[in-house]
Amino acid sequence: MPGHLKNVLTVQQRIASLAQRSPDFAFFSLAHYIDLDWLEEAYHRTRKDGAAGIDGVMGKQYAANLRERLQNLLDRLKSGTYKAPPVKRKHIPKGTSGETRPIGIPTFEDKIVQRAVVMLLEPIYEHDFHDSW
């Protein structure tokens, strides 16, 4: 198991344990858990073959200089200067009627940020919505 995955799983277990032990606990900030390992695991969990956002960067292209790109992203997240770019708007067919529906396609980098946030929130909400608890 890669080191970054082990670190992420350990943090997720800690968050899940706290959420389970203290269901009324209010999590005010989890952002301090996002580090380079966290972003690397988010990258690995993000689908690479999806459509490109407004910047035209595909998942496989983002892999070039991955650690440097992720460090730059982390620096922007930690400093508060990261701003999600606008989504690319596409209209796709809505059946056979000729109507279309709009979809939004975020940039690949924003998909990584979204995945990183999901990875933080899943351990909390998994406990709340899991049937066997």
Please summarize what this structure is.
With 133 residues, the protein is mainly alpha-helical. The chain is built from five helices and two strands, in the order H-H-H-H-E-E-H.
Mean pLDDT: 90
What is the tally of beta strands?
A: 2
Assembly classification: single chain
Fraction of residues in β-strands: 5-15%
Pairing-aware structural class of the strands and helices? mainly alpha
What series of H and E elements makes up the topology?
Answer: HHHHEEH
Summed up, the helix count is: 5
| Gyration radius, rounded | 17 Å
Q: Give the % helix.
A: 40-55%
Distance between the termini: 28 Å
- How would you describe the shape? globular
- Main pleated-sheet profile: 2 strands, antiparallel
Please tell me about this protein's structure.
The protein is mainly alpha-helical. Helix content is 52%, strand content 9%. Strands 1-2 form a two-stranded antiparallel ribbon. Strand 1 and strand 2 form a beta hairpin. The two termini are 28 Å apart.
Describe the protein's topology.
Blueprint: H1 3-21, H2 36-45, H3 59-62, H4 66-79, E1 88-93, E2 100-105, H5 108-129
Antiparallel strand pairs: 1-2
Helix pairs in contact: 1-2, 1-5, 2-5
Task: Give keywords.
133 residues, mainly alpha, two-stranded antiparallel sheet, 5 helices, 9% strand, globular
